[in-house]
Structures are given as C-alpha cells and as structure tokens.
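Each letter names a residue; structure tokens follow underneath. Both lines appear below:
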Amino acid sequence: MKASFRFLSFRVTILLLGLCLTSIFASGVDHYVITNDDVPPNLLNGISIYSISPGGQLTYQESIRPGGYGIGGGYFGMDRVLTTNMPGYECAYFSEAFDGFIVGVVLQTGAVGAIASGSSGDQGTTNGIGLALNSQYLYASFSDSNTIGTFQLQPGCGLTFVNDISVAGLQGGVIDAMAIHGDILVATFGDGSIASFNIAGGTPVPNGDEQNSSAYNSSQGATYPSAIDITADGHFAIFGDTSTAAVVEVSDISSGLLTKTVVYQSTTGINSSNIMLSPDETLLYVVGTQADRLGAAYFDKKTGKVSPGCLSNFLNGYVQNYSYLAGLSLATNTGTGDQVYIAEFGSPSSIAEVRVTSLAGKCSLREAPNSPVSDPYSPGLLSIASYPPRSF
C-alpha cells in the first residue's frame, strides 16, 4: 500500500491552549486523566485533561482540538488514547477515527507534535482505531480496513508511518484491541479469535498461534474476547469478554505464544469488555459494560488464577445520564491504584470516580460523593488514560 504522512500547521488556538497547559503542568499537580472525546462531525475532536487531587478528585483543566473528527462510538475494548512519560516523550497519543489520523500532543506545552495517517486504505470509521505502543513504535488497529499500522515514535511526540499489514479473525472478524509486552503484540478480533505477533523488528509478524478462545468455543459464539491486559513480567495475557455474562480469560504467553485460555466468570453482570490490572497486580478491575457496576477480582500473578473479589454499588446516573461504562484508568501507579476512573458513554459523557480499599483479603469499591465528573466536550466517551501511565 502506498504510504502517506502529514503534519498539520499549528493553529493560533492550539498555541493559546499550550500556554494554559504550561501553567497547569507547572502547578505541582503530577497526575492527570486524559480523554479521547471522540467527537463526530461536525465538531472538532480532541482530548480533555483533568487534574487528579491528592484525594483523587478530578478537576477539568483544558481541552486540545487539533482538527479532525471522531465517530462517537465503536468497540469498547480499544484504547483510543495512550500516554508516555519517557524522557523527551511526555506525550498523549490519540486516534481520530473519522479521518484516520493518529495525533501526538506534547503534554508540557499542549503543542501538537504530529497528525499522522497510514496508507490510503487504512480506515476505522465504523468501529474506531485502537492504539498500543512501546518505547520505539506506536501500533494502530484500523477496524474498517482490518490492518495494523506501524508508526515510529519521534522526538516532540512526532510519528513517522512505517507500513501496515492486513489481518483477520478466524471467522473473518475485525481487529479490535491490542496490547504489547516486550516483543509480543496480542490482538483480539471481535469474532472469538485471538492472535499474537512478533514485533522485534518493528513491523508485526504473525506468530502462527491464532485461535478461538475457550469461552467462545464453549458458549457456541455467545462470548468473545475484546479488551486485553498483560502482566508486568509478560507471563499472562488477560482478556475481558463481550458476553451476555461477565467473562474474563487468561492465556499463558511465557513461551512467546498464546496458549489455550482459562475461563473465569465474574459477578459484574453483562459484559466485561474493559479490564485493567492494578499496579501491584493483586486486583483485576472488571467493568460491567452494560451492568453499571465495577468489579474487582483477585489476581494471582504467579499462576494467573482469578478469584472472586468485590463489587461496587450501581454507579450514579445509569440510563438517565449514560448508556454504557467503558475504558478505565487509575489515580496512582502504586498498590491498587487507589481510585479507578471509568468512562461513561453518554451525551454529554462523564467520568465515574470509584475509591478502592483492599486489606487482609477483603476489598471494597465505593463511588466518590462527587462522582461522576462531566466531560461536556464528549458525546461518546469510550477511552481514557492516566498520566503518568502505569509502568507496564
């Protein structure tokens, strides 16, 4: 496919926003939540930035609208916004599905480092564009074209398109979420199948381990993996399933290949399309996408075993203010993460704040009194990220 790449000129408005952000990042606050507002035409898409107080409360700070449009929807498991805090690469990267753009933003200044596109055929206008990255490359899952694009990271949050590869699920499914550890990239396909790729050379190379998940096989297609997380040591890949129940699956990937998944059922209700491990890997947070609750299961990082934990009450505003729960992020990068933030898909959207306690084998999840916090610039919030990001 013919490659294309573009930088868009900075707008005066973006420069002004950058001046505001300089004072925010110099104010002593060092943790933030960043949204991909996923605004469909005819309003400009962008990100919104919220500071996290020492007590975990979110406060809206600023928005950056570099041009381009989102689609206001798509697959739950995709990460549409990611952050990095490597020296010289303190960046937020987010996708704009309608235009097929991947945008890099310098968080200290608010300047736009790049607005990059892949090949002319790389598109994600129906179900979105997911992202995954390591220290050298960013990978984009274009759901319409069923391609994975590879972009090399450049200083100043720039991106250079390298190439793309075509992929497909075993039942012809569309690429969904991706996650990376070391030289392995794991992907889901929205049809029950999962696969891994070797990325040692940058461009993903199939490992030849594509397979249907155990839950998909046993449910005769009623459940399929969507979201992915990988343990800090790269031993296990964990999948959150889209299902009529709440299912998570675990695959041992210590050999560098996917193995048959082990199935665990959660109590969060319908769907578990968004998951995240706590920084200490003792808890696996499971979002009940259509059940308006957050669950926390105990996770054994040595064996990959998932055990029952705790469940929040029904979160505020379900049906009246939002339709689905979606992506999540954490307040801190130590212990349990202290507080979980959950994207609430609505018009406008919002972010729920759930406080976590875990002691002596018992945990609790309680929504904060001031929750949720409005994201007035998003009519379809699905993805949020923390800065600085979790270390794995």
Notes: Residues 1-20 have pLDDT under 50 and may be disordered. Helices lie at 12-25, 214-218. The domain at 12-387 is CATH 2.130.10.10 (Methylamine Dehydrogenase; Chain H). The chain has one domain: 12-387.
